[in-house]
Amino acid sequence: MATNHWRTFPRWMLEEHENDLRLNAQLSTGRAAEVTAQLQHDPTLMRVLLTLLGNPNTALSTRIGIGVVMEDLAGSDLLKQHIALLGQLSQHQDISIRADACYYLGLSGDRRAIPFLQTCLQDRDLEVQEVATDALQSLNI
């Protein structure tokens, strides 16, 4: 007799997982413009995008798609609203995640990113330091 364990999950958990799978599929197949449009329609999806960014197991193709979306969102209120979360990611264990977070903090165009980026100037990895330096320069610091 089959048991439907998925029925015991709260609805929000299923929806979050569904969003994660959908965004991952779109990003990994070169459909970043679709994700950008969805984020503009439903800003709550930004947390899903940043969760993918913060997962070291996220595929390179998805990471490239995330970069395209973030560049589309450069200077937007949506990106600025997530500076604190990007700041947390700038302290992640994974070097690539730290470097990406620094780059996206620079794309925000918001001075609230400065303390996070200044901290990254002391990172143990040279790449992270360089990205943080470039991001600070883009903020005219």
UniProtKB/TrEMBL annotation:
Gene3D superfamilies: Leucine-rich Repeat Variant. This is HEAT repeat domain-containing protein. It comes from Thiothrix lacustris. SUPFAM superfamilies: ARM repeat. It comes from the Bacteria. Pfam families: HEAT_2. The lineage of its organism: Bacteria, Pseudomonadati, Pseudomonadota, Gammaproteobacteria, Thiotrichales.
